[in-house]
Amino acid sequence: MVGWPDMSETTREPDARQLATDARNRVRFEEDALALSDQVYRVARHLVGSREEAEDLMQETYARAFRSWRSFQPGTNLRAWLLRILTNLNIDRGRKRQRTPDLQPLEEGDYFLYNKLEAAGDGASDEDRVVERLSQNDVVGALSEVPHDFRDVVVLVDIGDFTYADAAQILDIPIGTVMSRLHRGRRILKQAMAESAVGGDGE
Amino acid sequence: MTAYDPCAHCEEMMQPYMDRVLTDAERAEAETHLDECTYCRKRYRFEERLRQFVHQAVQEPMPVELKAKLASLRTPLQ
Question: Is the CB of residue B69 less than 8 Å away from at least one CB of chain A?
């Protein structure tokens, strides 16, 4: 073997040592990945429509991650790596990748939800209380109404606490696209929450 | 020429402000305006509360059985 001094008795040692290191690295990888599963699930749960889908997707993701652990670069962001696998599998499962989802250009402004909730109140417009007019269901329901390409970004950044750069890598889209989808996705979300909490376009 | 509308400008800065991606100068500019404008301050504050609310409203603990299933996918030790 090139580079190894020939010391007859110890020639097999590097191999054995290599195997042991390998096994240790793999075990460590698997433990680290499992330790992150709660956090990965929290994001996965809202990338898809149902709990069942999220559970399937989690299992596929972990099966694949454990198989291809060698392609993970230690020291980089494992949670982002796992979510990249997960979002790719999710798309493979039939979610159509929309090129430029430039659908409805008319979502409301950034303050739409606040203005709606405040107007629907009894005059007391303390901003701390205004948010209490929303229920958990308003949020969960509204989130599921946000079109996929916008929702992915909102879920990764606002629920998964990923940076723009991480989200861009996970979804394999430019950072500028992350920013514009995030901005629009949040507006769509707020609009849907307003409809759920206050109802229709009323006025 | 359209008059500069500080509140409209402040609204544009709202999301990058919350995401902490403004430069120090932009941040200081936004904060100076917020100090003197109740309209914008109320809305920023609401947005901050809203984010926290959304963040915790969607928390759903992972089913325990799923955790066990994931662990069972590990490579068996030789």
Answer: yes
Cα dist. A199→A117, A138, A193, A194, B51 in Å? 10, 11, 9, 7, 21
Cβ neighbours, 10 Å, residue A79? 20
Whether B49 sits inside 8 A of A159 (CB atoms) is: no
Structure tokens at A1: 């073997």
In this complex, the residue of A42, A59, A134 whose CB is nearest that of residue B53 is A134
In tens, the pLDDT along A131-181 reads: 888 888 889 999 988 998 999 999 999 999 999 999 999 999 999 999 999
pTM of this prediction? 0.85
- Give CA–CA dist A118/A130, Å, rounded: 6
The residue whose two tokens read 């269901």 is A137
What phi, psi does A102 have (nearest 5°)?
A: -100, 40
* A141, A148 Cβ separation under 8 angstroms: no
Residues belonging to chain A: 203
